[in-house]
Specification:
- The chain has 522 residues and is of the alpha/beta class.
- The chain has three domains: 3-277, TIM Barrel (Alpha-Beta Barrel), CATH 3.20.20; 294-379, no CATH class; 390-508, Double Stranded RNA Binding Domain (2-Layer Sandwich).
- Helices cover 41% and strands 21% of the residues.
- An eight-stranded parallel β-barrel has the order 2-3-4-5-6-7-8-9, surrounded by seven helices.
- Bound molecules: 3-methyl-2-oxobutanoic acid and zinc ion.
- Zinc ion (ZN) is lined by residues 14, 169, 171, 202, 204, 234.
Amino acid sequence: MSERVAIFDTTLRDGEQSPGCSMNLEEKLRMARQLDALGVDIIEAGFPIASDDDFAAVCEVAKTCQRPIIAALCRTTPEDIERAWEALSYAARPRIHTFVATSDIHLQYKLQKSREEVLEMSCKSVRMAKGFTDDVEFSAEDATRSDLDYLVQVITAVIDEGATVVNIPDTVGYTIPSEYTHIIKTLRERVPNIDQAVISVHCHNDLGLGVANSLAAVAAGARQVECTINGIGERAGNASLEEIVMALRVRKDLMPFETGITTEEIYRSSQTLSNIIGVLVQPNKAIVGKNAFAHEAGIHQHGVLKNRLTYEIMTPESVGVKTNSIVLGKHSGRHALNKKYEEMGYMLSRPELDKAYKLFTKLADQKKEVFEEDLLAILQDGIANIPERYKLRAVQATAGTSTLATALVTLGDTKSEENETQTASGDGPVNAVYEAMDKITGLKGSLVDYTVRSITRGTDAVGEVFVHVEFDGVSYTGKAASTDIVDASARAYLNAVNKALYAKERKKAVSSEQVPATNAAD
Ligand code: KIV
Ligand code: ZN
């Protein structure tokens, strides 16, 4: 029987805190459900002291996902630890994850503390966390640039205090596999109580070595790996979950370890995240990129047709990529749609199914074949639970090489129950549409990013538009899919507008309840 490596997913914490990857509560919950279906052992759901939103996310994820361990991050201060524990109160299997930097450069410039003081802070925090729960993880931030003797001292001390998991992060993506192997082996040899804790690794990808370093650490004795879907995370990202898991599976001959991951859920997890945050996966990304299983060269195609093993080291099906994915057509009924969603792992409520069916029939009228990706897009765009203050009633745009782009937009205001129409001109049809919308809503949006891609094949393909729009300095994502790009662009922008208005409403409600503001994390 092979040894088990625990998969600790930090998409909702380390991933989410990186620019352009933020998610609202509803989106975090959707992602958490998918991570649960994927079979991760631990979901790090947030950093509760950092914001009320992070606090709420940890609470709600803990309520929703009862199988995996739910971890909440905190620094070593009592307020941080108390807040993390409060957020974990609904968790069936809570974990407090406390961290402090141990490298001299962090001690000197960031913390302005001595090694003795940081050692004391580490011990105290683990002691306090242990008073709340048995499952306590300690992370020595910037471990790979820390003095190894000091690291041995800190790790020994926190295990003595009861830490059950000790994490050795490569916070700045600086190490290389041979060095990381040496660090993990040294800890195993020189920390006398190391058998009382699981060694965890957490690698950033600044040198593109996050996955290689994680695997080297596993070979050296680590039994928990921290990673994110699609490798999202600070700067160049974190080690990618799908790459680690598939490397362990495909090269079991050299790395005889098991994970609890249902690999057939990998592609869906990647797509779900990409749809939520509006960050597309690069086509040549290992495992989940659009081209990961595409064979272009004639000689490769010839080989694959004769025997897939010639050029494929794993099957697309093993990561949940369907090769034949036409699923429904114009005549499919509500029952078939519900059944298909169930097969895809989504249980829709009656109102959600009604809404999804309406969008499906509209789409099936426009396209001959509806693919699983289309159904996912319907789910992501159409039935997300953001209240729609404005609805798109009509949009028309004209543009050309020698004419000024103009647009006419009608929005329905669900508050006043009135429709308003405005016209505007712009640099192009999409810009003109957005200008007209701003006139109606009174919000001035600044478009930070705009991406369009076709989700499916053919001239009637559904195009999906992602936008990142800033309102009053805060960035919101919006997305929508349609066979008409201008329509999708308008609805994506409106999605971001509705999120911004919803966030404003929520803020107002929270401040009238007098919820105290919390410290921002460093
Ligand atoms: O990169 C890092 O060191 C972290 C810790 C908080 C685990 O994210
Ligand atoms: Zn990190």
